């Protein structure tokens, strides 16, 4: 059965949203999604939520205390867990409930209130019997970025180019945490080296924020007064964090998910057939890495698209017109933000960061040690 | 075979909560020795207040003060309190409906003995000596007496609370990891080979993550290897054990099929390279324990770098 995104909502993301409680943060996104989708609370049949691991906020099973704030009383409430990719997985689980014919209208919500904790600390727990080397997500991913640069022979300035593009795109997005219209290659390259080879300006911020989408069945979509985003395909794949022969630069699970996604969407040439992509890029170099993993470029060639400016708005494949994870990173919500932003593009509701005439868009998320992948393709028209 | 090793793991963090308009009103009330509830769309009064209406789902806006005295609806006895509970001597957990409220709140009643507790008994709040705008301002409840505590005067609005959380685990190593740790305590590096795919895992897993079969073949590895990739950590953060800057490297020990994470010292950080040949520098034998930290760090051997192809499939 067909399903479509009827509407989306997100918070104004910021380092510290101390004006709201966690419930208030979630409701800011949910209320906007209900309004954008033309739905009332009574229209919602089920609620699916996702957030990053509980240690990040120190709230054990937040879905328990949030049940009434999320209007879930008397309805099914499910929580999805897949680390950083959880926002994407949450959107896919919600869409599957509709596509399977179980529900007509499902609310998907993902959030993170990072200011209540310290993600670097939460990601660097040192258990006994191990080397105490943990240094957060940057410490984990920086060696794999170094390996990509070595394998592809990419010039050093490509990472900084991604940072400049995404931060400037973020300046067009009123909801973005970082809005830096004045950023330059020089300023990125003079920012502090945090986890060599990753500089401060090439790193995602730590944000408070939430994102919600309302997914409806074909009848709800056809009854909508405003354009909807038809869900053409979804895919999720998983692999272990560490195993002998794991390719951290170009993980098998990501390649497999992308291959399944393009096949399901009837796409044979993603670079020409996708008009906009919201890809999970928490560190700038992940743009070329994921362009290859997703099949937009041959292995080792992704950086050439970035360097040629093809991933800017106006290029062959605008990547992260919203500014992406490099501008707003409420971890649990970041994946659903990618999915929602891709829907906004094909619904024509992306405002100043709208890619002109976007007909088909990709939303993508990854999580854990590059081991969970979730992605969808949405279109302005139903898949023929 | 040695019993699996175990060791304590303590995790703690002071989480900082922003309260938003409704809970801020409640906490500010507590700082004044007042209890604020919320009235929902059906007229029921919730104390503590709820942020969103259970029927209409709109944000609560109708706040009412309820009494600091109330009635026990039901209770149970806590004969041996545990750390962190409101009282250190035996007490009752009770659902207490405050006068003026329609919903009960869970709290402790300091009744002295279980025989002093009854359903329907009247109780009152015992306030903390110095209320600060925290749920702990209600120290506990006690049987109703004639002495009342006067509410305090105006206070600054309370918008944040700090929630310290501490978790205590006993972390246990697997039998295979225990053998590896005993090996390290003797200055040996013990790995295991998968009988099916022949890949050598360090530390040993007990099962091959690719083939899913038990790994039983033990392999002793040399303490020399190749840096496959690395990062230089310059950023300080809470709980960090090694002072930055330091080089966190993936070291592929000769004969292993998966890198072993460790520190590289013995040369400037900017001279560490992918492919660099390195050797373990062990701490003095009297400092050895059951830990990879018996290896203080790896140092460059000075040998020519390994060819990229030799470690390309281990990135």
Automatic annotation (TrEMBL), chain B:
Which keywords appear in this protein's UniProt record, sorted alphabetically? DNA-binding
Record domain ChsH2 C-terminal OB-fold: where: 64-127, 218-283
Q: Which residues form a coiled coil?
A: none
* Every ChsH2 rubredoxin-like zinc ribbon domain range: 183-214
Q: Which GO terms describe its molecular function?
A: DNA binding
This chain belongs to the protein called: DNA-binding protein
């Amino acid at each position: 059965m067909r399903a479509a995104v009827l509407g989306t909502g997100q918070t104004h993301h910021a380092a510290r949203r101390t004006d709201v409680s966690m419930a208030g943060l979630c409701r800011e996104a949910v209320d906007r999604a209900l309004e954008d989708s033309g739905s009332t609370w009574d229209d919602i049949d089920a609620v699916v939520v996702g957030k990053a691991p509980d240690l990040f906020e120190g709230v054990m099973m937040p879905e328990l205390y949030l049940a009434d704030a999320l209007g879930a009383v008397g309805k099914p409430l499910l929580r999805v867990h897949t680390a950083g990719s959880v926002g994407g997985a949450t959107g896919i689980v919600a869409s599957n409930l509709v596509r399977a014919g179980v529900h007509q209208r499902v609310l998907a919500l993902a959030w993170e209130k990072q200011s209540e904790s310290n993600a670097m600390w939460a990601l660097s727990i040192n258990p006994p019997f191990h080397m105490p080397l943990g240094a957060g997500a940057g410490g984990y991913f920086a060696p794999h970025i170094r390996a990509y640069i070595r394998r592809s022979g990419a010039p050093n300035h490509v990472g900084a180019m991604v940072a400049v593009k995404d931060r400037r795109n973020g300046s067009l997005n009123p909801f973005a945490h970082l809005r830096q219209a004045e950023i330059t290659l020089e300023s990125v390259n003079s920012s502090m080296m945090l986890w060599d080879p990753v500089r401060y300006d090439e790193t995602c911020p730590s944000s408070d924020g939430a994102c919600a989408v309302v997914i409806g069945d074909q009848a709800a979509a056809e009854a909508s007064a405003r354009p909807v985003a038809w869900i053409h395909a979804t895919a999720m794949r998983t692999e272990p964090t560490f195993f002998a022969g794991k390719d951290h630069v170009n993980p098998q699970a990501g390649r497999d998910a992308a291959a399944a996604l393009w096949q399901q969407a009837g796409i044979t040439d993603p670079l020409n057939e996708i008009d906009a992509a919201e890809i999970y890029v928490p560190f700038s170099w992940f743009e070329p890495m994921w362009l290859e993993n997703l099949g937009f470029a041959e292995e080792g060639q992704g950086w050439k698209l970035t360097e040629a400016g093809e991933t800017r708005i106006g290029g062959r494949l605008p990547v992260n017109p919203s500014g992406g994870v490099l501008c707003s990173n409420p971890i649990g919500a970041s994946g659903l933000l990618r999915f929602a932003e891709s829907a906004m593009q094909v619904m024509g509701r992306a405002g100043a960061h709208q890619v002109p005439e976007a007909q088909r868009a990709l939303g993508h998320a990854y999580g854990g040690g590059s081991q969970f992948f979730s992605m969808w393709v949405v279109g302005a028209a139903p898949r023929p | 075979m040695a019993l699996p090793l175990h060791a304590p793991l303590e995790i703690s963090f002071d989480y900082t909560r922003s309260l938003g308009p409704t809970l801020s009103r409640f906490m500010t009330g507590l700082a004044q020795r007042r209890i604020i509830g919320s009235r929902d769309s059906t007229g029921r009064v919730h104390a503590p207040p709820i942020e969103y209406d259970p029927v209409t789902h709109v944000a609560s806006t109708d706040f009412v003060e309820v009494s600091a005295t109330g009635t026990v609806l039901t209770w149970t006895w806590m004969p041996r309190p545990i750390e962190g509970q409101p009282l250190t001597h035996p007490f009752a957990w009770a659902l207490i409906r405050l006068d003026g409220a329609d919903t009960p709140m869970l709290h402790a009643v300091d009744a002295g003995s279980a025989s002093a507790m009854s359903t329907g008994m009247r109780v009152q709040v015992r306030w903390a000596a110095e209320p600060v705008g925290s749920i702990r301002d209600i120290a506990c409840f006690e049987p109703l007496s004639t002495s009342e505590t006067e509410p305090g005067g105006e206070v600054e609005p309370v918008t944040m609370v700090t929630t310290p959380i501490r978790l205590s685990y006993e972390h246990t190593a697997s039998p295979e990891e225990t053998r590896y740790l005993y090996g390290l305590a003797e200055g040996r590096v013990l790995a295991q080979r998968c009988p099916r795919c022949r890949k050598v895992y360090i530390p040993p897993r007990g099962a091959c993550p690719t083939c899913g079969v038990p790994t039983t073949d033990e392999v002793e590895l040399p303490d020399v290897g190749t840096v496959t990739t690395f990062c230089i950590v310059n950023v300080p953060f809470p709980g960090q054990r090694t002072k930055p800057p330091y080089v966190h490297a993936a070291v592929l020990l000769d004969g292993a099929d998966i890198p072993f994470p460790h520190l590289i010292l013995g040369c400037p950080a900017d001279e560490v390279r992918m492919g660099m040949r390195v050797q373990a520098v062990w701490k003095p034998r009297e400092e050895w324990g059951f830990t990879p930290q018996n290896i203080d760090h790896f140092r460059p051997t000075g040998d020519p770098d390994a060819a990229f192809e030799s470690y390309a499939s281990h990135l």
